[in-house]
Design brief:
The chain contains six helices and two strands, in the order H-E-E-H-H-H-H-H. It is mainly alpha-helical.
């Protein structure tokens, strides 16, 4: 689902080193020294794949599913920003997931869900 959302919101946008719906396999930096500093997320695809798999297991765990939806949405947004799995569009992807978090239930890093259609409808 996460990859599908990313693909929908970045498809057709020409941004170097961004492949819509595909996790990156290159280094990126977030931020800059003049505005709070630079963060370097995980650098290689095997690490990103592992972290996203662990994320989906964690965010779908019984303990987290029971959380107040805005708290779960904030955790989702924070973790996606931390891993920064895509070349571009990580924040947009996180905001879409945040907005649907009360109903997104179980997520799969590459699976498909009804949310994808609602995102497509929203952006048309």
């Amino acid at each position: 689902m996460i990859s599908d959302v990313h693909r929908l919101i970045t498809h057709g946008i020409d941004i170097e080193l961004n492949n819509p719906g595909v996790y990156r396999n290159h280094k990126v930096q977030v931020g800059n020294r003049n505005h709070g500093g630079v963060y370097t997320p995980p650098k290689c695809l095997p690490d990103i794949n592992k972290l996203m798999t662990v994320f989906c297991e964690w965010i779908n765990s019984e303990e987290l599913v029971k959380l107040y939806p805005p708290i779960r949405a904030a955790l989702t947004h924070y973790y996606l920003g931390l891993v920064h799995p895509f070349g571009d569009g990580n924040g947009r992807t996180a905001r879409i997931l945040d907005s649907d978090c009360p109903g997104f239930g179980r997520c799969d890093p590459k699976g498909k869900r009804v949310l994808v259609q609602s995102v497509a409808d929203h952006y048309q």
